[in-house]
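Lay summary. Proteins are chains of building blocks that fold into shapes, and those shapes determine what they do. In this project we predict the shape from the chain. Here is one chain we studied, written as its sequence of building blocks.
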Amino acid sequence: MTIKEKLIQGSDSLTKADKLIVQELLANYPTSGLSTVSDLAARSRVSDPSVVRFVRRLGFDSYPAFQKALLAEVDERMNSPLSMFDKANRSTSNDSFGQYLDGCADLLRRAGELNPPGEYERMVTALADPDCRVSVLGGRYSRYLAGYLNQHLGMLRADTRTIDPIAPEEPHMLEAFGRRDLLVVFDYRRYQADVIRTAELVRKRGARICLFTDPWRSPIARIADASLLAPVESLSPFDSTLVGMAQLEAVVAGLTARLGAAAEARMQALEELAGDLRAGKERDGDG
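And here is the predicted shape, written in a compact code that computers can read:
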């Protein structure tokens, strides 16, 4: 098994520091692993000893031994005929539309490599908790992702809502958060200060946090219980939200399967209520 495969495989036994290191290594693979212990620790926002302990858990006696194995894998990959063919094939394409779609497919592939399966499972498990209240928060450009997720959550489970960043004049909003709350946050690069501040304050109140962010990671990643990373680069001058949308839809699919009959019963009840509302509106129109 390669180092990258070990990182992608993940484990429920990983500490929060381990998860941050894994995400940094996968987000900038293999470059991050070729820097010093201190550099990797700083980018992962963990301590130097945390990095050393992590590579030992991967099966290496020391950080230099880890780097030696990583360099061997990089050398093998760089001389791979498949890699050479892939580069040549991409450089000769003149189809802009096709290139963009190829880029989209590449973003989705990279997302699969960036995120250990355990992060996805943790997020689905948190959202499936019937005793928690779910609040979904997005920034200026990711607000629509937050709203889209909440629309689906509302069909599958009770007690969900979207919120805006909490303003200084709204202390009552902050006071209402506690240990039964789960905050789902969308925060991509050019991270939004009021979104970050809201997450930090809500966390201090005891709430859990699930985060959708990019490979460079919002500062919220330090306090999140689960994070999904989405590559955002595209041929356009604008960052792509394609992977973020795919990830939230994957979470919805996983949650639907996890809730099973309970979700089906809720959707049926909501359909009946919608029918009652339509019938009442028709009667009002006739009057």
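What the prediction tells us: The first strand starts at residue 133 and ends at 138.
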